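Quiz preparation item.
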């Protein structure tokens, strides 16, 4: 049985001292999960690339007018670079 652990928030502003630290951590965790899924033959590379394409498409088709169009374009660009560079899947 797995125990759930609660980490109490710190009073330090560590997350605001480094810009985008939460996003960078989330990207690193997701990349590691995708690599593990591929390494353990749970998801093949084509499925992982499909997941990345779906994520990019969600941002490419985001609702206009909410003031975050530039952010959505930047997310699509980053995910596309990850796919093109093979950063999320170890390609042989």
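Solution:
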């Amino acid at each position: 049985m797995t125990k759930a652990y609660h980490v109490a928030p710190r009073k330090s502003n560590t997350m605001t001292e480094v810009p985008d630290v939460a996003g960078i951590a989330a990207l690193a965790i997701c990349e590691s999960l995708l690599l593990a899924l591929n390494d353990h033959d749970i998801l093949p590379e084509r499925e992982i690339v499909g997941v990345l394409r779906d994520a990019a498409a969600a941002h490419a088709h985001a609702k206009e007018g909410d003031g975050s169009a530039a952010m959505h374009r930047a997310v699509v660009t980053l995910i596309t670079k990850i796919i093109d560079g093979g950063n999320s899947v170890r390609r042989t």
